[in-house]
Amino acid sequence: MKILVYEHITSGALCTEPLPDHLVREGNAMLQALLNDLAGNQGVQPVILRDFRLDIPPHTHRCHYVRDLDDFRRRWLACLDYVDGVLPIAPETDGLLAEVQSWVLKTGKRLLGCRPEATAIAASKTRTAEYLAAAGLTTAPTVWLRDWQPDTFTAGALICKPDDGAGGTDVLYFENATALNTWKQQSPSETWEKQIVQPYIQGTAASLSLLCAEAEAHLLCGNHQQIQIENGAMRLTGITVNGMEYQRLDRKIFQGLADTIASVLPGLWGFVGVDLVLSPLPVVLEINPRLTTSYVGLREVYGVNPASWFMTLLHKGMEAVELPPQPNQKVTISVEEGLAIQATHC
């Protein structure tokens, strides 16, 4: 089976502009891990589009170098003709991921990822909160910046971020309502229509790695996220895959949470990430309807090829996927140091 692994940042779609180093590191790490894992499955031939400024990663059956946008369009269409399915990894921002998913479906190729209708919901933090809250999950109180007033929430720190987009992009931290109100008054009114405000929730930053399909979910592992606040901005500096401590909360709680999310958004398919805060019970923040950086550590955590679950899901369905027992390894990924990996025993 020929599979186009479409990693947007490294694909050549940005060939006319400078490549953002940190996004290239993350994109390359995910792409290389996935290519390695897919190539370990008999009969799978990974195909990629590649920015001409980057080297060809190993385990690539066919690579199409991209030098300009016309070249990108031609090679994208040529790849769609050549492959059997497409596994997209792209930001949700501005509807990009949903557009890629829709295009794959229109061409009649197999979409090896979430359905665009699920991605459209997950890409919006307010819509995600509405769907999950209606299903009984705890979510962060959320209001649009245009509607926010200094007395909207009780005293404490606040977060302001875009409603649309991927994960922790452009997340601003304010120590109190006065600081946020000052920033709001100095911001153009169009910003008010795109940003949301949430109280800063004290607790442990975490994420879940899931395998989803057919309104069901397998919990692969819970991850501990290292978040740094500096100069009024929040950023992810590291992830400990399988680093979530279950002593306080039973793993069944997180599997139940995963089951609810999959039932609320039945179009989730394949590898999916969920961001949350343990405060101390889980507060769900966002859903990432695609493979995330945590995937890079899954093979070492489990000691098996995680793409084998993916291929079983593809060919035989969710009921045929059998996970090994809960692993006793954890892997720390330093996002700011070239995605260096350090393995330790739990």
Largest sheet: 11 strands, antiparallel
Estimate the global geometry from the Cα principal axes: globular
Structural domain count:
3
CATH topology of the largest domain: D-amino Acid Aminotransferase, Chain A, domain 1
The percentage of residues in β strands lies in 25-35%
Class by SSE composition? alpha+beta
Can you give a write-up of this model?
Residues 129-315 form the ATP-grasp domain. It holds the Pfam family ATP-grasp_3. InterPro entries: ATP-grasp, ATP-grasp_PylC-type, MfnD, MfnD_preATP-grasp. With 346 residues, the protein is of the alpha+beta class. It has three domains: 2-112, Rossmann fold (3-Layer(aba) Sandwich); 141-199, Dna Ligase, domain 1; 204-345, D-amino Acid Aminotransferase, Chain A, domain 1. It contains ten helices and 16 strands. It has helices at 21-39, 69-82, 96-106, 116-122, 125-134, 177-186, 189-192, 251-264, 298-302, 307-316, and strands spanning 2-7, 45-51, 62-66, 85-89, 110-111, 143-144, 158-162, 171-174, 195-199, 204-213, 216-230, 233-241, 270-278, 282-288, 329-334, 340-345. The strands form two sheets. Strands 6, 7, 8, 9, 10, 11, 12, 13, 14, 15 and 16 form an eleven-stranded antiparallel sheet that branches. A five-stranded parallel sheet has the order 3-2-1-4-5, sandwiched between helices. Strand 10 and strand 11 form a beta hairpin. The longest helix is centred in the N-terminal third of the chain and has 19 residues, at 21-39. The protein is globular. The chain starts with a strand and ends with a strand.
